[in-house]
């Protein structure tokens, strides 16, 4: 069999280790996963809806997500035809590339950011133009300098993963004025619920600029990572193409019902956001006490500079039942990322970190 040449040197995405795997391989009974930016709470109100939906699992889901689409279009004040649903927002990244890229077209990705952009761009035969961050933030000036007549898509994670930094309304507005209309700017807003008030309103901008696509997810603040659903909003034309080329039943019925229930319950979301904020400050304080550098985060995770290779620390924490995320995939061997867990989990993480550093008295 001869495979496509583009796939020869593809580094596949390495997700955070699953809890079950760590339990199995290290013989542990309790494992805390602080590696994949999930929230640590189960949205119990959604469990009930899913139980009900289980009665219909012999039937295909609604391929057009009718009720969810209607609810979301009202909530976001966008036309139903502007929305695309995905099996997680991950799928929307691939769909945008599939819709737009011809072999050799250029895609601008920054560094370090969500690795899927680069992996998917390679799969779709694009030429990748990497623009490094400046002080852990997107450099919009450098991105603009790198736009050529072959540029088709610019990916921007806002807030960013793994740094946790974000771009403001002012920065994004000024940037969009300078981006040519034939270049799509893909704003990946997987963590937008956690961001502060000067965060950009890209859906409003989309009313003026058609070359914007905004993706969001139910995996993070809403706590539905396990049932896979995300959505994107763009121009009617782009959404139409993306809807044409997606798999017909890409969003299963549990995910559709779960997402509707999630949107109808603000209380859970507010609790999550307040909790994350409070707990983030607890961790900042502890990192300061330990003298570990970190980047202030607009998300539910924090990136730290450990000032030495993180391999031994990672092994140590795994044996103690804590999964963090090393950033070696980004070539950042001294850095790691930790998601905000339950208070008990965060406290135990700090305790183990202290022990590792020989600071536990
Ligand atoms: C920046 C960013 N975008 C997208 C995703 C994918 O989220 P999902 O496919 O679960 O919606 C993630 C997940 O970690 C992320 O960090």
Can you put this structure into words, describing what you see?
With 361 residues, this protein is an alpha/beta fold. It folds into 2 domains: 5-42 and 267-356, Aspartate Aminotransferase, domain 1 (Alpha-Beta Complex), CATH 3.90.1150.10; 58-265, Type I PLP-dependent aspartate aminotransferase-like (Major domain) (Aspartate Aminotransferase, domain 2, 3-Layer(aba) Sandwich). 39% of the residues lie in helices and 17% in strands. It contains 13 helices and 13 strands. It has helices at residues 19-26, 44-53, 66-76, 90-100, 116-123, 140-145, 169-178, 202-208, 236-245, 253-263, 266-290, 311-319, 343-356, and strands at 32-33, 83-86, 106-111, 127-132, 151-157, 184-188, 212-217, 230-233, 293-295, 301-305, 322-323, 325-327, 332-339. The strands form 3 sheets. Strands 2-8-7-6-5-3-4 form a 7-stranded mixed beta sheet, with helices on both faces. The chain has a 4-stranded antiparallel beta sheet with strand order 9-10-13-12, with helices on one face. The protein has a two-stranded parallel sheet with strand order 1-11. Helix 8 links the parallel strand 6 (184-188) and strand 7. The longest helix is centred in the C-terminal third of the chain and has 25 residues, at 266-290. The N and C termini lie far apart (61 Å). The mean pLDDT is 96. The structure holds pyridoxal-5'-phosphate. Pyridoxal-5'-phosphate is lined by residues 37, 88-90, 114, 157, 161, 188, 190, 217, 219, 225, 230.
């Amino acid at each position: 069999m001869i495979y496509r040449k583009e796939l020869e040197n593809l580094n596949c995405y390495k997700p955070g280790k699953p809890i079950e795997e760590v339990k199995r391989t290290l013989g542990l009974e309790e494992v805390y996963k602080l590696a994949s930016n999930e929230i640590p709470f189960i949205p119990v109100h959604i469990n009930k809806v899913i139980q009900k939906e289980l009665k219909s699992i012999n039937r295909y889901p609604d391929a057009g997500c009718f009720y969810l689409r209607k609810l979301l279009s009202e909530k976001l004040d966008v036309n139903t035809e502007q929305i695309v649903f995905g099996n997680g927002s991950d799928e929307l990244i691939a769909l945008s590339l599939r819709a737009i890229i011809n072999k050799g077209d250029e895609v601008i990705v920054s560094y370090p950011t969500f690795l899927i952009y680069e992996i998917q761009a390679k799969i779709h035969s694009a030429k990748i133009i990497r623009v490094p961050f400046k002080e852990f933030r997107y450099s919009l000036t450098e991105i603009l300098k790198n736009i050529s007549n072959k540029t088709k898509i610019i990916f921007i994670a806002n807030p960013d993963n793994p740094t946790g930094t974000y771009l403001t309304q002012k920065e994004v507005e000024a940037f969009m004025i300078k981006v040519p209309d034939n270049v799509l700017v893909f704003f990946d807003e997987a963590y937008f619920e956690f961001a502060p008030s000067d965060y950009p309103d890209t859906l409003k901008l989309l009313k003026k600029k058609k070359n914007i696509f905004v993706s969001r997810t139910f995996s993070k603040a809403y706590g539905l990572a396990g049932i896979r659903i995300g959505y994107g909003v763009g121009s009617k034309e782009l959404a139409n193409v993306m809807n044409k080329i997606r798999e017909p039943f890409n969003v299963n019925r549990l995910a559709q019902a779960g997402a509707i229930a999630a949107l109808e319950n603000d209380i859970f979301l507010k609790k999550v956001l307040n909790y994350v904020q409070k707990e983030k400050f607890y961790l900042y304080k502890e990192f300061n006490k330990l003298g570990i550098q970190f980047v202030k985060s607009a998300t539910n995770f924090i990136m730290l500079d450990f000032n030495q290779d993180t391999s031994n620390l990672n092994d140590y924490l795994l044996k103690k039942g804590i999964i963090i995320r090393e950033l070696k995939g980004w070539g950042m061997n001294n850095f790691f990322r930790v998601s905000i867990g339950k208070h008990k989990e965060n406290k135990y993480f700090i305790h183990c970190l202290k022990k590792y550093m020989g600071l536990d008295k």
